[in-house]
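One such shown below:

_____
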Amino acid sequence: MSDQRYRRHEVAHGALRAARALVYAVVGGLALTAIGVFVSVVGPVVALDLATPAMSAWWTVFTAVVVQGVPFLLLGTLVSAAIGAFVPDRVISRLLPRNPALAVPVAGAAGAVLPGCECASVPVAGSLMRRGVAPAAALAFLLSAPAINPVVLIATSVAFPGRPGMVLARLVASLAAAVVMGWLWARFGRDDLLKLPAAPRTRTGGGGAASRWADFGAGLQHDFLHAGGFLVLGAAAAATFNIAVPRSVLDVFTGSPWLAVPLLAVLAVVLCVCSEADAFVAASLTGFSPTARLAFMVVGPMVDLKLIALQAGTFGRAFAVRFSSVTWLVALVCSVLTGWWLL
């Protein structure tokens, strides 16, 4: 009886620690979001009084990107911690085919089940790699999850009313780009470029319920704090671009269909709009062609400054630079071909 009471005590203690970590993460995320909203309103006013309108604009963009990304980053770290603590390796291995060429499209299609943005997909992909999933499949999931989940597709249909072709084009182009990148990594990827994310330290050992709850709490704390710092760095880079490039420069490209598509693909990288909101931004760009706006929505969830920063912090800088560059090109080509076919 004493052993049973001890085990029950350990399970309860582990669950309490995990619940405490969850509460801290949720409360911390909500507090950070509230502070960001407050600062985004008050900050520009203070900046105008103390400095220049440019500083006010920088602060507005910076806080907007952070506030937009934190809730979905929290969602991603919750999923990542749950996968790492409660999903056995054998379950994941059974869900995906052993052949990487077949596992990539399955993982890409599975991205539809995670209703989050690119901030959420990075920690989840890292957790999948830690559990033995082939990097090619995990990377296909990383790229597809923010682009083809139901929330994003519904937002796209709302942003483009009466144009189901735009929703279908986004789904087809995004899934195609994710699968192609997974196959390219399976064929040409170099393991020395991919620094697999280290598993977070746990406070207990063994495989009991208490240990799993402790692992969940440790993983949640590790992933949220680690990825959150790189989210802030990416937001700062996006805000700097927004005030450094004059709008008159962008107007030069509006009238050229050949220049408009790569221009919006570049803007998607630097503006760092969340995938749940980028359709509304694309819909407002009425001076650009439908294919150019499609490229904006396909490239953004796969390659932007905050995502590059998150990838660099999770998988290594050498990987992030090379992988993001090729992803940008593949997403652009898939957008052009899909736009020519469906739009």
